[in-house]
Amino acid sequence: MSLINTEVKPFKATAFHNGEFIDVTEASLKGKWNVFFFYPADFTFVCPTELGDLADNYEEFKKLGVEVYGVSTDTHFTHKAWHDSSETINKIQYPMLADPTLAISRNFEVLIEEAGLAERGTFVIDPEGKIQIVEINAGNIGRNAEELLRKVKAAQYVAANPNEVCPAKWQEGEATLAPSLDLVGKI
């Protein structure tokens, strides 16, 4: 079953954020756009490149009113230790959500049960708490924060303009499409 347009299931977790431990629940997501960025584990190889890329683009997400959550099955203590010991991870200003019970990873259907780790899953969640974008990558394939920004902008655009759709490679400010009988077979 697809998670598209489903509400984020209830959860309660602790995140490491700006030198503190904070509580995060599904209610924390309401009223703004959010990205859940699952990754397998702290102190690994591809993960810091992705999280660093997100950190480098975090201001752009914030300008769009989007909160980013890095999520792994590590504890919030491990997130702090990694943040304190890695130059790349130290620049992260978004919350690093801990999922040691594996419940959040299960809820988002990215848990690798036999390993107790999360797949590389990316989820864009609208202000009502509904999932609008789902992307899962194989463990050895890193993601691109600029492409994620483009997708977030497209999701925000169609949410604000429900009679329009964004075509492939759409960039902010470019033409969209208004689905109609007149377009059938003409694209």
Automatic annotation (TrEMBL):
UniProt keyword terms in alphabetical order: Antioxidant, Cytoplasm, Disulfide bond, Oxidoreductase, Peroxidase, Redox-active center
Pfam family, one: 1-cysPrx_C
Subcellular location: Cytoplasm
EC supergroup of this enzyme: oxidoreductase
Signal peptide: none
Highest taxon above the source species: Bacteria
GO molecular function: NADH-dependent peroxiredoxin activity
Catalyzed reaction equations: a hydroperoxide + NADH + H(+) = an alcohol + NAD(+) + H2O
Thioredoxin domain mapped to chain residues: 2-157
InterPro entries tied to this protein: AhpC, AhpC/TSA, Peroxiredoxin, Peroxiredoxin_AhpC-typ, Peroxiredoxin_C, Thioredoxin-like_sf, Thioredoxin_domain
Gene3D superfamilies per the UniProt record, alphabetical: Glutaredoxin
Main location: cytoplasm
EC number: 1.11.1.26
SUPFAM superfamilies: Thioredoxin-like (SSF52833)
Family: Belongs to the peroxiredoxin family. AhpC/Prx1 subfamily.
PANTHER family: ALKYL HYDROPEROXIDE REDUCTASE C (PTHR10681:SF121), THIOREDOXIN PEROXIDASE (PTHR10681)
Subunit: Homodimer; disulfide-linked, upon oxidation. 5 homodimers assemble to form a ring-like decamer.
Summary of the function given for this chain in its UniProt record: Thiol-specific peroxidase that catalyzes the reduction of hydrogen peroxide and organic hydroperoxides to water and alcohols, respectively. Plays a role in cell protection against oxidative stress by detoxifying peroxides.
Name of the molecule in the record: Alkyl hydroperoxide reductase C
Gene source species: Halomonas kalidii
Species lineage: Bacteria, Pseudomonadati, Pseudomonadota, Gammaproteobacteria, Oceanospirillales
